[in-house]
Design brief:
Strand order of the largest sheet: 1-10-9-8-7-6-5-2-3-4
Number of domains: 1
Protein name: ADP-dependent (S)-NAD(P)H-hydrate dehydratase
Family: Belongs to the NnrD/CARKD family.
Subunit structure: Homotetramer.
Order of helices and strands: EHEHEHEHEHEHEHHEEEHHH
Organism: Amycolatopsis pigmentata
Enzyme class: lyase
Length: 287
């Protein structure tokens, strides 16, 4: 069983967040890249969470065959159809489509609904040089598996990127088993020079640590991580610091899951339910 966090780790509480507010008068653009042929809904979940967290403008990049449907499902967003491989993964050739778009985004979320780690690695190598160094970066899901092959890919955003692995993805990033989430988050943060949120444990490459104990095991449902990545991206688009965005997003995500239990039960919770709940949670925390 994972060990509890050290007493030196700061707990994430509503009081902490209210004393660490994210400004609401500076709402930039967030871009979410993912949505392979078999999982187009992942970018829809992330994109909705981006807007719920307060981003001013949303852009989605996903498999070309799903672009129109995503645009209808998310009329608040611009949608860019991306080329795909024979097996339906978003192709490395997507970099050509996005060359004029990505440099203008304040926050870029990469990973929700990406498939095929080899193609994702090639995609990262081409896509990341397009992201402005003053932008903020969020990597999730298959993008993390790809990053584990070449950690220096995120070096231009040292201290300005956020990684949101689950336990399995954390083990890929570290190359060993994870039993202590706080220790693992700290190790990942140092190795990849990024802020990390891992199962409630949050760490910065400078050694700061927080822990949010409000989550529960049933948040590990399909699409839940996409919602968390989107929340982080939304806060970054509002000019939150990476640590601030990770703490706010992790707590909102956990609290939304708690609030849903009386209505959905612990086994019936859906990621789309989380998205619908986060707006109310954020409003309450901001009062």
């Amino acid at each position: 069983m994972p060990r509890p966090p050290s007493p030196d780790v700061t707990p994430v509480t509503p009081a902490l967040l209210r004393n660490w507010p994210v400004r609401s008068d500076d709402r930039g653009t967030a871009f979410v890249l993912g949505g392979a042929r078999t999982v187009p809904g992942a970018v829809l979940l992330s994109g909705t969470a981006v807007l719920r967290a307060g981003a001013g403008t949303l852009q989605l990049g996903a498999s070309e065959r799903h672009a129109t449907a995503l645009g209808v499902a998310m009329p608040e967003s611009s949608v860019f159809g991306l080329p795909e491989t024979e097996n339906g993964a978003v192709s490395r050739a997507a970099a050509e489509v996005l060359a004029d778009v990505l440099p203008k985004a304040r926050a870029v979320v990469i990973g929700p609904g990406l498939t095929d780690v080899d193609e994702t690695f090639a995609l990262l190598e081409r896509i990341l040089p397009l992201v402005a160094e003053e932008s903020r970066l969020v990597l999730d899901a298959y993008a993390l598996g790809a990053l584990s092959r070449k950690p220096e890919l995120v070096e231009p955003w040292a201290g300005q990127s956020v990684l949101s692995p689950n336990r399995t993805e954390a083990e890929y990033l570290l190359g060993h088993d994870v039993t202590d989430f706080s220790a693992a988050a700290t190790e990942i943060a140092e190795r990849y020079r990024s802020v990390v949120t891992l199962m409630g444990a949050i760490a910065t490459p400078g050694g700061e640590q927080w822990f949010d104990g409000g989550g529960h095991i049933h948040l590990a449902t399909s699409g839940s991580g996409d919602v968390l990545a989107g929340l982080i991206g939304g806060y970054l688009a509002r000019s939150a610091t990476p640590a601030q965005a990770a703490c706010w997003a992790t707590h909102v995500h956990a609290l939304a899951g708690q609030r849903l239990i009386p209505r959905t039960g612990v086994t019936g919770l859906l990621a789309r339910d989380l998205v619908a709940e986060v707006g109310t949670v954020i409003s309450e925390l901001s009062q």
